[in-house]
Amino acid sequence: MNEDLIIKVYESARDQYRDLGVDTDAAISRAVQIPVSMQCWQGDDVLGFDGSDSLNGGIATTGNYPGRAVDFAQLTQDIEKAMSLSPGKLKLNLHASYALKTDPKRDRDAYTIEDFLPWVDWADHLKIGLDFNPTFFSHPRMDGNFTLASADADCRRFWVEHGRRCREIGIGFAQKLGSPCVINYWMPDGYKDQPADTARPRERMLQSLDEIFADKLDERLIPCAIESKLFGIGAESYTVASHEFSYGYALSRHKLYCLDAGHFHPTEVISAKISAVLQYLDQILLHVSRPVRWDSDHVVVYDDELQRTMDEIVFNRYENRVFIGLDFFDASINRVAAWVIGLRNSRKALLNAYLAPLDKLRQAEAAGDFTSRLAWQEERKNLPAQAVWDYLCLQEGAGVGISWLEELKRYERLVQSKRA
Ligand code: RNT
Ligand code: ZN
């Protein structure tokens, strides 16, 4: 589509929305301002750079599409490519396993910001913030699937120290980049079969987390979240940091709760939980993902649940209380395209939330006119949001329509396919 046509189509959409009381220009400027944190781990199948050659801890990447990024230069090149095709404000979400160790003998219990300086310089250069995650998986110091809840005191000490280091590193990121660094704690600890003792591991987990968070650091710079999970591969029967455990921890310790879309029973959805937990918590973190039959971490598509999730944030004015992070890893398609598709869909759903005829919906509801509410909800689905989206992409220089795909194919040919 040529530029003139995009603008013409946009102007007609703008008029249509105006008749419904929706300001499309305002919707665009709000939608592009919301930071979406892009997961670094989509680019290399969650392997990281600090020594592991296989992924464990109850998660798995499937597929063997060629062109996986294997080092800092390749991964940042891929991230930049994906970012250039994804409109709106972005952050990069880094895992501690992506350390570029200045001393090869240094282990995760001794990492400092020195081990991440190339990332900081890179982020600074791109003018984006960094979020962070301690990596409690893919490491020889794990005790089976256990880390912070291990019965082995030495093992626990190692992982507590890792968790503490990551808070300090996060403070450094926030200060150097002038943007808060959200830190997410996800621990895979759990059992394949039903344990005889479900309580003691949780007592140890709680104690370890309390030790990690004992130092009084400025949590406005490093909002810290605990991510719950229902089960992992090889930990199907019991997960220490379950929903009740993690939510309770966040509530009682003034932490954030991280809701991952794939970490609940298959008929549960995180969109239904946001306004409930925010009655009690100041802020939460989302891991926007897509479970297909299980916690499969499929690429985020533009489906009803994604829209409902973004609606919840926007309709309730939770923009400053909900941090949005993406969490999927797919190795069966071009990995950079996977990012672009997930990022574009997330932003498109945010835009569409701002384009909803919310006044009409809420007025109908307040009047008890549920007929009109349903009629408007259905009408909304076919309003010309695509025209507004195309215009947003044009303004942001992020590729209109599917033109990004051609650019991506070129990148695959010239860059990714040349990798060993
Ligand atoms: C695992 C959790 C966790 C990870 C990332 C890599 O089930 O969702 O968030 O996916 O930390
Ligand atoms: Zn997650």
Walkthrough of the structure:
With 420 residues, the chain is α/β, with parallel strands linked by helices. The protein has one domain: TIM Barrel (Alpha-Beta Barrel), CATH 3.20.20. 43% of the residues lie in helices and 11% in strands. It has helices spanning 3-19, 24-33, 72-84, 117-126, 153-177, 199-212, 243-253, 274-277, 304-315, 335-354, 358-366, 370-380, 385-396, 403-414, and strands at residues 36-39, 90-95, 130-133, 183-185, 190-191, 224-227, 238-239, 256-260, 284-288, 290-292, 294-298, 322-326. Strands 3-2-1-12-9-8-6-4 form an 8-stranded parallel sheet. α8 (274-277) links the parallel β8 (256-260) and β9 (284-288). α2 crosses α10 and α5 packs parallel to α6 (199-212). It is globular. The structure holds L-rhamnitol and zinc ion (ZN).
Features:
alpha/beta, TIM Barrel, single chain, binds zinc ion, globular, 420 residues, two-stranded antiparallel sheet, binds L-rhamnitol
Short description:
This protein has helices at 3-19, 24-33, 72-84, 117-126, 153-177, 199-212, 243-253, 274-277, 304-315, 335-354, 358-366, 370-380, 385-396, 403-414; strands at 36-39, 90-95, 130-133, 183-185, 190-191, 224-227, 238-239, 256-260, 284-288, 290-292, 294-298, 322-326. The chain has 420 residues and is α/β, with parallel strands linked by helices.
The coarse silhouette is: globular
Unreliable stretches (pLDDT < 50, length at least 5) are none
Give the terminus-to-terminus CA distance: 37 Å
The CATH class: Alpha Beta
Order of helices and strands: HHEHEHEHEEHEEHEHEEEHEHHHHH
Which fold name is given in CATH as the topology?
Answer: TIM Barrel
- CATH homologous superfamily name? Divalent-metal-dependent TIM barrel enzymes
Number of helices: 14
How many domain modules?
1
Strand content: 5-15%
Average pLDDT confidence is: 98
The major pleated sheet works out as:
8 strands, parallel
